[in-house]
Design goal:
7-stranded mixed beta sheet; about 425 residues; 23 strands; 5-stranded parallel beta sheet; FAD/NAD(P)-binding domain; alpha/beta; 10 helices; binds flavin-adenine dinucleotide
């Protein structure tokens, strides 16, 4: 069987794989991008129908192209629908003539024995590469905590499998997890006339916009996208933000006023009854404090820099507490409450089981420094907090890809020197 060889093999053609390819193309590094499905497949088929980008089009993009090149109707402050995001990625790959091969799955990867490089078994044959960039995504395997038994008589799906309200059986819906996915799905279901319960854990909830600037702009000028590590103990704090309805601040107290029933963290299951932690009020208070802190930092920035941005006192409005906040529900009989569906918006895990390499910690997560693996020749891209807070976002991954490309360039230089100065006996 013939074996194809290449300098660098990128696995995955989401935003991370494409950003990597752009930089390697600029640097003249021969490479191939393998994608088991289509370019930006997760935007196409693993997200709900009405999803729009969480950041405005001027911000959530690569430097090399605007969204208006794909859809002239998209203005800079719009939130691009998910299909437009996927079209944008495809157009980007075309614009930079990226060597993407779709419909090719990487099934196994291992180090070559006795010589440099890696052997990759794919659905289309074997490829040997000197270097590997794993760009298979920060959100690979949906995680459903084992709380409610499968045979409990209630439909249970992960947010990755939610598409639209019509897909669900009639009846009330409990959404577990109030990050950007959970709260948007809950809001959509409530607008569709469903009775909705939302289990709210610890979260950050930045204002959508303040004093005429989107929070993406504020986090940028305040240097917060570039934070290199989460605050101690807050790594798993989810961020509740939405571009739906043209972009609105997520305010759980408002949602409760509008009829959504808020609950604390989902914890236990006994005889059809779901138990919730007594942390709802603390979680809402901490979310509010996070919201208000950003307003304070923004005001401070405006004052220090003498910016002419209009005051926005409405942003500090606090909605009165609904009954579910003053009298938190600690137990709920799902059947009695009429809840037919539970949607777990509880996040994802990574799955690198196809990489037979010594590059992972005991929990299966890559061991790396800014994406450079402890296993020489292996790089990861698109990991949450890979180098900074913005690493898993469209624009953030582009900067991480530039760093990885630099690192690849450095290693190639050392090898060039070696080959140019190789002893006569060693094959070139
Ligand atoms: C609901 C949701 C909304 C989001 N909204 C935004 C947003 O508005 N703005 C923003 O900047 N970010 C957003 N993100 C975060 C992030 O941008 C996305 O998760 C994005 O898809 C990550 O891109 P990626 O290239 O790192 O990974 P992915 O998009 O997951 O791409 C990885 C690719 O690798 C392929 N692959 C995996 N394994 C193999 C294999 N063995 N062989 C071959 N191919 C393989 C997959 O098919 C996939 O196409 C959102 C995330 C979620 C979950």
């Amino acid at each position: 069987m013939s074996v194809e060889t290449i300098d660098t093999l990128i696995i995955g053609a989401g935003q991370a794989g494409l950003a990597m390819s752009e930089h390697l193309t600029k640097d003249g590094v021969p490479h191939i991008v393998l994608e088991r499905a289509r370019i930006a497949e997760r935007w196409r088929s693993v997200r709900w129908d009405s999803l729009v980008a969480n950041g405005p089009a001027w911000h959530d993009r690569f430097p090399g192209m605007g969204f208006d090149e794909v859809d002239p109707a998209i203005r800079p402050d719009d939130f691009a629908p998910k299909e437009v995001v996927a079209d944008y990625m495809e157009a980007y790959a075309r614009k930079f003539r990226m060597p993407v091969r779709t419909g090719v799955e990487v099934r196994r990867l291992e180090r070559l024995q006795g010589r440099a490089g890696f052997r990759t078994e794919t659905s289309a044959g074997v490829i040997e590469a000197q270097r590997i960039v794993a760009a298979t995504g920060p959100f690979q395997k949906p995680v459903i905590p084992p709380v409610i038994p499968r045979d409990a008589g209630v439909t249970q799906i992960h947010s990755a499998d939610y598409r639209n309200p019509a897909q669900l059986p009639d009846g009330g819906v409990l959404i577990v997890g109030a990050g950007s996915s959970g709260v948007q799905i809950a809001d959509e279901l409530r607008h569709a006339g469903r009775r909705v319960w939302l289990s709210v854990g610890p979260h950050d909830r930045p204002p959508r916009a303040y004093r005429g600037r989107d929070f993406c702009w504020w986090l940028g000028v305040l240097g917060q996208w570039d934070l290199s590590a989460p605050a101690p103990g807050t790594e798993h704090v989810t961020i509740a933000v939405s571009g739906a309805h043209g972009g609105e601040t997520i305010d759980f107290r408002r949602l409760a006023q509008e009829g959504m029933i808020l609950l604390g963290r989902t914890e236990t299951w006994r005889n059809g009854r779901l138990g919730f932690a007594g942390d709802l009020v603390a979680n809402l208070d901490n979310g509010d404090a996070n919201h208000d802190r950003l307003l304070d930092q923004a005001d401070d920035y405006v004052a220090r820099n003498g910016l002419d941005l209009p005051p926005d006192p409405q942003a500090r409005r606090r909605y009165p507490d609904a009954d579910c906040i003053t009298n938190p529900i600690r137990e709920l009989d799902l059947a009695q409450a009429g809840i037919s569906t539970v949607i777990w918006a509880t996040g994802f895990a990574v799955d690198y089981s196809w990489m037979k390499l010594d590059a992972f910690d005991a929990s299966g997560r890559p061991v790396h420094q800014r994406g450079v693996s402890t296993e020489p020749g292996v790089y990861f891209l698109g990991l949450p907090w890979q180098s900074r807070r913005g690493s898993s976002f469209i624009w953030g991954v582009w900067h991480d890809a530039r760093h990885i490309a630099e690192q690849i360039g450095i290693q190639r230089k050392y090898l060039d020197y070696h080959h140019q100065n190789a002893p006569q006996t060693e094959p070139a």
